[in-house]
Amino acid sequence: MRNVWDFLTRRIFLKHILATLVIGGALNAVVLLFYYEFKRQAQTDQVAAEMATIANRIARPLAELVMSGNQAQAQSLLAVYSGFPYLICAEQRLEQNPETLVSWPAIGCEKIKKTGLDISVSVPTAAGPAVMLARIDQEILNRELRTEVGVVVLLGVLGGFALVLAGAAAFLWLINRPLRQMLSAIEKFELYDDPQRVTYRSEDEIGKVVQSYNSMLDREVERVSAIREAHHQIVESVNYATRIQQSLLPTTKQCKTAFSDFAVKWEPRDLVGGDIYWLRKDGPISTLAVIDCTGHGVPGGFMTMLAIGILERLYFEDGTLSPSSALSKLSDLTRTLLNQDQSGATSNDGMDAAICQIDVNKGTAIFSGAHMSLLIKQGEKVERLRGDKLSLGYMDTPKSPKLSEQNFQFDENTFLAIATDGLIDQLGGEKRLAFGFQRVISTMKQGNWSSSAELLEAIDRVFKNYTKDENRLDDLTVIAFRPIIINN
How far is CA 228 from the centre of its chain? Predict the structure, then answer.
């Protein structure tokens, strides 16, 4: 029943028909009620008038016949009432004498048990005032009235049905037809991007609505065309920016030269992003930087270019910079170039970063991080070197921040990994908790990996399985690598 009601209420034509039937039926019921009461009263008044008229005409001669002893003639004269099918009985008596003078049928109204509507008329006679009584059968009158009302109802239903059909046809042609044309045009535009004008023409309200829709459609087509053109230009620009950003990344050849093996998962959330990694090799020393800049998308992409430019400048000017010194200078130059070291600065952007510097001759490495960690796997043990709890380049970042450095030795079984918070902070699982370092560490402990690529694939599998139902929150970078081992 609920489904039927939902179907009916979703169609304006059916709602129109239902409303017409309900309202029309209610109005007809009220009208018929008043009509029935009116006809019943009119019928009663008409019968009473007929009986009174006959009584006035026959009362005097009837009384004279009775008084003269002509009872049979009086009986015959009173039988004039037999021509009325709704009459039960009729009689005459004197007002001063309750005894019936003459009656029809002869047994008299008193002995007839059937009740009805009594109509009495008093008329003067030679013997004194006489009362004429006529008893009406109310059931016959009601039956005739119901028959008459039934005919009226039937004619009303037929007429109403004809009006409903005519109204439905007019509605379908004048209202439903243009509305369906407009709805079809709207659906084609929404679903298939196919703008079509409605061809309906009229000067009425529906015609004005159609004209307004056509005008809005023209403006919308122009606006959408302009938006598409702008979007196309923006996408082309961002795609070009993507190529520029990718060109800033170390090449595969550079990575193979600097490390024993190297694997990276670099995935901007958008076409360009705020994550970047940078590599420099100077003789036996390889310096790898991973940087997570403010924001993502185009703003993050601008910040990565700034960070790479600063690192290139720093190591061009001094190739012996330690990781902590490089991060400190990166912070100061970022604040200076963005005028964030001045009062009234309009921006407050910065970055988290980590630098790992490897000396293959000594078999040692130095790590320094700002809100970023380095994971070291040696055999079955995995250690996390935590960076300092500060970010670089922001307005509230101290000038020339002092960052700590951590030294460690490596061998042929050492795997190193650095990840941005796009991996660590991504939500997932049933409770929508962050992926976290612990899952990365557990994955690194699980096997004796033959290569960095194999390790990174395992981390990626666990990550995707954990976050499969969630949208990506940030840019993501994960790097796994092994230092080159020199056998002396």
Answer: 26
Return the pLDDT at 3: 58
d(CA 299, CA 349): 10
Q: For strand 275-282 and strand 261-267, is the pairing parallel, antiparallel, or unpaired?
A: unpaired
Through-space distance between the first and last CA atoms of the chain, rounded to whole angstroms: 88
Instruction: Give residue for tokens 């912070």.
Output: 331
- d(CA 122, CA 52) in angstroms, rounded, equals 9
Whose structure tokens read 């407050």? 348
The H or E element that residue 356 is part of is: strand 351-359
Nearest-angstrom CA–CA distance, 70 and 64: 9
Tell me the chain's radius of gyration from C-alpha atoms. 53
Please tell me whether the overall predicted TM-score, pTM, comes out greater than 0.85 for this model: no
Residue 172 corresponds to which amino acid? Answer: L
Q: Confidence class of residue 2 from pLDDT cuts 50, 70 and 90?
A: low
DSSP 387: P
Closest by alpha carbon to 100, among 132, 141, 125?
132
12-69 pLDDT tens trace: 667 767 777 788 778 887 887 887 788 878 877 888 788 778 877 887 787 778 778 7
Q: In whole angstroms, what is the distance from residue 377 CA to residue 381 CA?
A: 6
